[in-house]
Amino acid sequence: MNTLFWQKVNNLIKIQNKTQQSVSIECGFNPRRIQNLSASNRLPDIIEAKKIADVLGVSLESLVSDKEPDFKPSVERIRGFLKEIEKELENF
């Protein structure tokens, strides 16, 4: 389970062109928190796991289940950003 969790997290980090350090910082953790947990193959507590999922734009369930990751929240997040950009451009 631990290995699967970290495989999913690290795959999402790579896909999103982020680093463990940048995700840790976005989560409000010590910059090396994710690296330390991942390297020692320890699971974060539930609050930390939820913050990681939120920053990566996926559900917590997708990180802890055997199912394929759900990227729908990421797509919705991108759509939201695009709508914000469109509104900003309309103001120019």
Report on this model:
There is one protein chain. This protein is mainly alpha-helical and 92 residues long. The protein has one domain (2-90): 434 Repressor (Amino-terminal Domain), CATH 1.10.260. 70% of the residues lie in helices and 0% in strands. The protein has 6 helices and no strands. The protein has helices spanning 2-15, 20-27, 33-39, 46-56, 60-64, 72-90. α2 crosses α4 (46-56). The longest helix is centred in the C-terminal third of the chain and has 19 residues, at 72-90. The N and C termini lie far apart (50 Å). The model has no long low-confidence stretch (mean pLDDT 87).
CATH class category name: Mainly Alpha
Task: Please give the alpha-carbon distance between the first and last residues.
Answer: 50 Å
Largest sheet: none
Give the name of the CATH superfamily.
Answer: lambda repressor-like DNA-binding domains
Shape type: elongated
Mean pLDDT across every amino acid position: 87
Number of domains: 1
Portion in strands: under 5%
Based on the structure given, which CATH architecture is correct?
Orthogonal Bundle
Q: What's the total number of strands? A: 0
Q: What's the helix count?
A: 6
Low-confidence stretches: none
C-alpha-based Rg, rounded: 15 Å
How would you classify the helix and strand content by structural class?
A: mainly alpha
What string gives the helices and strands in order?
A: HHHHHH
By CATH, the topology is 434 Repressor (Amino-terminal Domain)
Helix content: 55-70%
Task: Lay out the secondary structure.
Elements: H1 2-15, H2 20-27, H3 33-39, H4 46-56, H5 60-64, H6 72-90
Helix pairs in contact: 2-4
